[in-house]
ARSJ Arylsulfatase (Jacana jacana), 558 residues
Amino acid sequence: MLALGLLAGLSVLSLLTYGYLSWDSLRLGPGQKEATRSGLGEGPGAGDPGSQPHIVFILADDQGFRDVGYHGSEIRTPTLDKLAAEGVKLENYYVQPMCTPSRSQFITGKYQIHTGLQHSIIRPTQPNCLPLDNVTLPQKLKEVGYSTHMVGKWHLGFYRRECMPTQRGFDSFFGSLLGSGDYYTHFKCDSPGICGYDLYENDNAAWDHDNGIYSTQMYTQKVQQILASHNPRKPIFLYIAYQAVHSPLQAPGKYFEHYRSINNINRRRYAAMLACLDEAINNVTLALKKYGYYENSIIIYSSDNGGQPMAGGSNWPLRGSKGTYWEGGIRAVGFVHSPLLKNKGSVCKELVHITDWFPTLITLAEGQIDEDIQLDGYDIWETISEGRRSPRVDILHNIDPIYTKAKNGSWEAGYGIWNTAIQSAIRVNHWKLLTGNPGYSDWVPPQAFSNAGPNRWHNERVSWSAGKTVWLFNISADPYERVDLSTRYPDVVKQLLRRLSQFNKTAVPVRYPPKDPRSNPKLNGGVWGPWFKEDEKKKKSDKSKGAHKQKKSKNKNK
């Protein structure tokens, strides 16, 4: 315990500087009984029963943890800074390390292991999508009278029409189906020769809207049109999933004005993209006020994963990047802004995860959560609005049984409890355990972006023995993951490995099919879109059934 105390002492300066975590939350005991889901808390308008709030969920793409003004960035984000300062900053907020996983967990309230999407992302050529038996957030909100609209990036699969956003609960959809693409032309090549157009309005390619407008601005204009045409007396759910600041790094020229002094071209372009995004969110906020939504609205802002340093993003002082289970890959920029908050201008240091939005928003909307839906999220509105303790004490960051690149991983290294070749990560109270190969693990400080090209000489690196496949950190005392405690606290490691094993027993099989050549946009009018024809399959099935019946009938007559 003395060693742990020294570690905490070393970390106190950085904790005070950044204010990430509360010392009150140093609750020892991964073996402690799991918290139960909180009951239905008071709605945002407790004194105004029957008043359903307008819900606006804004999801940025690949925004780094440091890449917001109030986290010390050199990139100016006056809108985000103001909205966060007047609302509640989430400074212990977690998402998933990549696009599809975060989006699927937001829209279902379930961990990846419970939807089959625990490996990688959904690729454009894969016959895969968010399983159709999962109830979605917009579907639940529609049940209680909400108008539901999505603008931006879907990335939850589209190989069948039933997978499209309009079939998963949204009254309207305007945006892209894939994970990335050109910001102006909306074309995307998945591989040489496999290229297509990717801009949709509802279920059809939006050729009429293709006027060469930068996607961040185009999506904002669409949001303004939706707000202008909707009746603010009726509740609305707006899911705005901006493409920015994901690569390719593109931005209108005027946004480079303040960042010409940044020598690193990727960082300069990234800064311009973020400046444009910040302005877009200001325009969305102004539209909410102009058309009469703002006073009864809840605006939630989140990044979908950590930044990618090679593409201009910064997660400093956190370790790692997008695609990894280090804090830099999964700890996100997030805040809630609303006139309905009780503790405005505060910082929430309680544990919050992206799955928590599903039960929280349904409860705020006065909806019902079916008993048979096994959620992994918690209702955390009272935690955010009133500063109460979070009902969440753990997060399963993921278990990916396909990603077993840690060649030295073994059951022996996992004390016979867990095969440490498997990539997995879990947080219980202030302890975090990683197994397998967690991914790129450098700390990338701001000076790494000082040169014209990528420069890793400035990066801080840590060396460990080649056979290492287990790490343990006290995230509350060591948020930057600098001191591995796995050999010092083997009993804690065992407890967390057992918890991983318990979670794994509830996992469903991984959905990660091989690519389907029928997905080629050349076969679909040059557009990325649904290619799997249910009718053809049904006809073949009916034909074979008919032939079988006929054969049976002949045999009977004989």
Observations:
- DSSP finds eleven helices and 18 strands in the chain.
- The first strand starts at residue 54 and ends at 60.
- The chain has two domains: 54-393, 399-449+460-506.
- The first helix runs from residue 2 to 18.
